[in-house]
Specification:
Strand 5, helix 5 and strand 6 form a beta-alpha-beta unit. The longest helix has 33 residues. The protein is globular. It is built from eight helices and seven strands; from the N terminus they run E-H-E-H-E-H-E-H-E-H-E-H-H-H-E. By secondary structure, the protein is of the alpha/beta class. Bound molecules: nicotinamide-adenine-dinucleotide.
């Protein structure tokens, strides 16, 4: 049990990696969780978290890039739990998108990346926000990347990932506008912007899914990033991008002066 007792959380892309860690950490802290993913394995992952934590964790197969699936997730959560308090927009896709590829390839890449990383966040959140307003408040956490923050450490993202990069910069627009507009409704909206974290997405970048030894030594753990999210929820701030850089403490920074919020 913990400081999220009685809360209900929705986590997208929770079958592995950071999403699984967020779902587990939320449950460990007392929340009930709706964990969804395109992968069937989400059902086993959710059952395992439920067994380990004693919390209700529903594992649902759903695709955040599909409007009907977003609607189903929100409607079913309200029907089954009476509402929800926390939405973690974690589902994300990555692929190389060289700027000199054909425009036809670029359009295909656009849909592959943006339909999940950008449009999915828009659809799920816009369907969710009226429910959070009715609930009297809550939290939205947009999972971004340290690429939108000033550099502190080198990362694994190649220069030929313009669309992935753009999809995460686009989340800044949501975090900034929603945090300001929804403050009146007691809804906080933040971004989390981590560097290299040991997940299947990161390992897929390397042959045989083996991290290079120098990276394996320093890479961040998903459970530590998940704890940072729990700390962020407890902190209560809104409208910020919270960074986590390889080689630095994973923590919530001091509250910035107003002119350091992401809108400048
Ligand atoms: N791992 C890192 O180093 C790192 C760094 C910065 C940001 N991120 C971000 O963190 C988030 C999680 O990344 P990860 O490393 O755990 O990735 P991952 O690929 O290991 O896991 C992503 C999960 O999202 C699911 N998913 C993908 N598209 C989906 C869709 N349309 N609908 C529902 N589920 C979908 C996948 O099936 C998978 O289970 C992503 O948004 C990613 O961009 C990761």
């Amino acid at each position: 049990m913990g400081n999220l007792d009685g809360k209900v959380a929705i986590v997208s892309g929770a079958a592995q990696g950071l999403g699984e860690a967020y779902a587990r950490k939320l449950a460990e802290n007392g929340a009930s969780v709706v964990a969804f993913d395109v992968q069937e394995s989400i059902k086993d992952v959710a059952a395992s978290i439920a067994a380990d934590t004693g919390q209700r964790v529903d594992g649902v197969v759903a695709d955040v890039s599909k409007q009907a699936d977003c609607q189903r997730i929100i409607d079913d959560t309200v029907a089954n739990f009476g509402g929800f308090d926390i939405l973690v927009n974690n589902a994300g896709t990555w692929r190389e998108t060289p700027v000199d590829s054909s425009w036809e390839q670029a359009l295909e890449d656009y849909h592959y990346i943006m339909d999940t990383n950008f449009k999915g966040v828009l659809m799920l959140s816009r369907i969710a926000i009226p429910k959070l307003q009715e609930r009297g408040g809550g939290d939205i956490v947009n999972i971004s990347t340290y690429y939108v923050l000033p550099a502190r450490s080198e990362g694994t993202n190649q220069p030929n990932t313009d669309l992935y990069n753009a999809s995460k910069w686009a989340l800044n627009g949501f975090t900034d506008a929603w945090s300001k507009h929804l403050a009146k409704d007691n809804i906080r909206v933040n971004g989390m912007c981590m560097g290299a974290t040991d997940t299947p997405m990161l390992r897929n970048l390397f042959p045989d899914k083996q991290l290079p030894p120098d990276m394996a030594e320093v890479v961040m753990k998903a459970e530590d990033i998940a704890q940072q999210m729990i700390d962020l929820l407890a902190d209560g701030r809104s409208g910020e991008n919270i960074g986590a850089w390889v080689g630095y403490p994973i923590e919530i920074p001091p509250t910035p002066a107003p002119n350091r919020l992401i809108s400048g």
